[in-house]
Design a protein that fits this description.
The complex is a heterodimer of chains A (about 110) and B (about 120).
Chain A: E1 4-6, E2 11-14, E3 19-25, E4 32-38, E5 45-50, E6 54-58, E7 61-66, E8 71-76, E9 85-92, E10 100-102, E11 106-111
Parallel strand pairs in A: 2-11
Antiparallel strand pairs in A: 1-3, 3-8, 4-5, 4-9, 6-7, 7-8, 9-10, 9-11
Chain B: E1 4-7, E2 10-13, E3 19-25, E4 32-38, E5 44-51, E6 57-58, E7 67-73, E8 76-81, E9 90-97, E10 106-108, E11 112-116
Parallel strand pairs in B: 2-11
Antiparallel strand pairs in B: 1-3, 3-8, 4-5, 4-9, 5-6, 7-8, 9-10, 9-11
The chains are: A mainly beta (about 110), B mainly beta (about 120).
Chain lengths: ~110, ~120
């Protein structure tokens, strides 16, 4: 079993829809949670980061963490075609050096 | 914000030759850099952690003699794929930690697409 599970998709939604992307994890030592967006043939770029349970909002994006369920989500409101990309969740165990553990990524397609 | 520059963005080489990929932190010093490999429609797989002034730490299953990593300065790490073969064709991405960056400062390069023919 992978430490971080993420549905690969693809997830296809119409423009303007609310998108929900999710990851589950098994290692309770993960304390820091990040979401990256990766366009095709580009490196990942950081979207959101959080270390506490609850919600964190930034513009159209909301990151949600539920440590008791070992479940994190990224919500995208008013989705745009430019949001079409692969979204990767990443986690860090502060007791295990500098390494990030990534989910497999979910490919999102927002259709105009 | 912090920028990591990776070069080249794309390279095609003949089987048996070696290819060097550079990763530079442009506006910060990076004592640690990371090298990832990504296959199509798959996530990033950590290959090795590059430490300035010391030997790289390789993940299990990654051949250190095949993938040579050199971190000679605080702003430059290089990955050399030696005696490349078609199965080495992949997307290689480097990452560095910017000390004051958000999200623990992990910043990624734009990746290098290697095709071995």
């Amino acid at each position: 079993q992978k430490e971080v599970e993420q549905d690969p998709g693809p997830l296809s939604v119409p423009e303007g829809a609310i998108v929900s992307l999710n990851c589950t994890y098994s290692n309770s030592a993960f304390q820091y949670f990040m979401w990256y967006r990766q366009y095709s043939r580009k490196g990942p770029e950081l979207l959101m980061y959080t270390y506490s349970s609850g919600n964190k909002e930034d513009g159209r994006f909301t990151a949600q963490v539920d440590k008791s369920s070992k479940y994190i989500s990224l919500f995208i409101r008013d989705s745009q075609p430019s949001d079409s990309a692969t979204y990767l969740c990443a986690m860090k165990n502060n007791n295990a050096g500098n390494m990030l553990t990534f989910g497999g990524g979910t490919r999102l397609m927002v259709k105009p | 914000g912090a920028v990591v520059s990776q070069h080249p963005s794309r390279v095609i080489c003949k089987s048996g030759t070696s290819v060097k990929i550079e990763c530079r932190s442009l506006d910060f010093q990076a004592t640690t850099m990371f090298w990832y490999r990504q296959f199509p429609k798959q996530s990033l797989m950590l290959m090795a952690t590059s430490n300035e002034g010391s030997k790289a730490t390789y993940e299990q299953g990654v051949e250190k003699d095949k993938f040579l990593i050199n971190h000679a300065s605080l702003t430059l790490s290089t990955l050399t794929v030696t005696s490349a073969h078609p199965e080495d064709s992949s997307f290689y991405i480097c990452s560095a930690r910017a000390p004051q960056g958000p999200g623990y400062g992990y910043t990624f390069g734009s990746g290098t697409r290697l095709t071995v023919v």
